[in-house]
Structures are given as C-alpha cells and as structure tokens.
Amino acid sequence: MKILGYAAQSSTTPLAPFEFERRALRPNDVLIEILYCGVCHSDLHQARDDWGYSVYPLVPGHEIVGRVTAVGSKVSRYKVGDSVAVGCLVDSCQECHHCHHGEEQFCLNGRTDTYNSPDRTTGENNLGGYSTHIVVREEFVLRVPAGLDLAKAAPLLCAGITTYSPLRTWKAGPGSRVAVVGLGGLGHMAVKLAVGLGADVAVLSRTRDKENDALALGAKHLLVSSDAKAMEAAASSFDLIIDTVPVKHDINPYLPLLKVDGTLVLVGQVGQLSEPSTVPLVLGRRSIAGSLIGGIEETQELLDFCAKKNILPECEMIRMDQINEAFERLERADVRYRFVIDMASLKAAK
User: Fold this and answer.
1) Fewer beta carbons below 10 Å: N end or C end of the chain?
2) What CA–CA distance (Å, rounded) separates 256 from 271?
3) Domain locations in the chain?
4) Which pLDDT band holds residue 246 (cuts at 50, 70, 90)?
5) What 3-state DSSP class applies to 179?
C-alpha cells in the first residue's frame, strides 16, 4: 500500500514529503488511518540522530490517534470504524517474563519501537506516524474510549504514559505529596495526572515565572529551586519527585526534599547525570530511579482514566508542513505544551 508521509533523509536535512510502502496486512494486523499525531521531543532527537542510531529515511511519530480502515483475518478486538491509538511500541516477543506481565517496554528479547526500529518479521526499518496510515499488530493497538477528544488525545500515548507509569508504580494518590521538576510536555502531564490521582502536587522551577501556569494545571504551589530558604523549609516533604528535565542537570538540590523512603524518578533525560551526592540517599533511605513509558495494559488504563477524569494535554494544532518550524520551536521550548499534527493537512496535500 502506497503511503504519503514526512521523512528526514539525513540528520542535517529538514523533514519533507516522502512516499513509501506499508506492508500488506498479516492475519493479526490492523490498518489505521491516522487522524492526529503528537510531536515528541524524541522525534526531534531521532530526526537529527542525536542518539547515534537513526536509520534513514526516518519517518517519526509515536503518538498516534486514528480510525480502523481494515483488519486481518484473525483480528478479533477491532473492527472497521473503531477509534484507536498507537504509542511507542508496535511489537515485542510476547513470551518473556516482562511481556507476560504487561511490561512490553522491558521485553527481554527487545521491544519493537513504532519507528526507527526493525520489524520482527522482515527486519525492515519501521516508519512512524507522520504519515497517512500505519499497520500495527492488534495486540499493540489501543482503544480510544468514548468521550476522549481525538484531537487532543495523541500526546497521552507518550507524554501521558511516561508520567502516569511512575505515578502508579510509586503509588501516588490521596495522602501522598508529589513534586514535578520541569513544566513542559512531560511536566504538565505529570501535574495533571498526579492531581487526577488525588495527590498533593507542587512544581519545582528555578524561577517563579511559571507559577500561574502551575496553579492553573492543578498544582497547589510552586517551589523555587534557586531559593535556598524555601528549599530548606521544604526538606523531607515529598514522597515522590518526577523529574522531566530532558538535558543533563544537577539533581542534588532535589534529593533532600524527599521523605524517608522517597524516590526521585527520572523520565526526561536519557544520558549522564551530574554526579549525585550519596549523603541524602544514605541518611534518608532515599532512592533515584528511572522509568520508561509503560506497557500496553497500563497505557489502556491511562486512556480510560483520562476519559473518566476528563484529563487531556494542552495542545497546539499544526499542519504537517509546519513540522520543521515546530521542531525549531521545540528546541526553544516555545510550545504550551505539546504540538499535535492534524493529519488531514497531509491528506489534503496529496
């Protein structure tokens, strides 16, 4: 099936229209017409080969919302016309311990990402959601609940699950105190979801500039990390800190804020940290952890939760031909808080 998308042909070229073939449906495959696709910071990283393993041509996009247009002969969960979604994963071995426990993102035999990842059957490089259609095996297709706004739901498939999973793992809820470091695409979802779960939520920021935004999202207060007296007064007050900062940074100021047995979870940065001090860890039995997206079952739980609580990302809708400008703005953190591509703009350009 001939598909139109937008692709990077190298790490230095802008994204541009690109025609390619999607595979014919296997018996357990679902063909999805893509209606909306979120723009993740990792799309920018991979398009520019910042992590050193990009394969070109590269079609980004792993926050996908669409409609089923065809199904394979053995598909039982979906039918033509269903509203569905696809996140960061499109396959895994389905046989290892983690796959059996709904944690396909940690598949011991290697997960298959939605793009820039080899297909488990053919070995061909997967191409993502900046395109008119995608083919995905049904076990990795998610149902969009009735009442969830399709035009705003796409960022839940990455920014949402990336923050929801640690909130659930570390049991954020009524009676717990959660701090969020960074108020971008991930951070604003962490605030909304933690509030939705019933936690008392604070935002940590170097200045007070984002205080009104933090409060509007549901946080109880903003803690200025450059204010030594305020940080000292907040010592030992949080059960969980979700750190969404995507670049190398110093986490040492945040560690004393944790209660005994509290945990700081890194979800934004992939790479090296500034050297953490062990003093607050040892003296307070505190922990530093990381978290990677979520499994299919947990992602479906997130979508159902957001539909029930009416939790949606703050989105700016763009046309497909605005993606290079959006990437430039993303680098400057000039978005509140997530870009979503209206894929009708790509179909209209055919």
Assistant:
1) C
2) 23
3) 2-157+294-303+313-348, 160-290
4) confident
5) strand
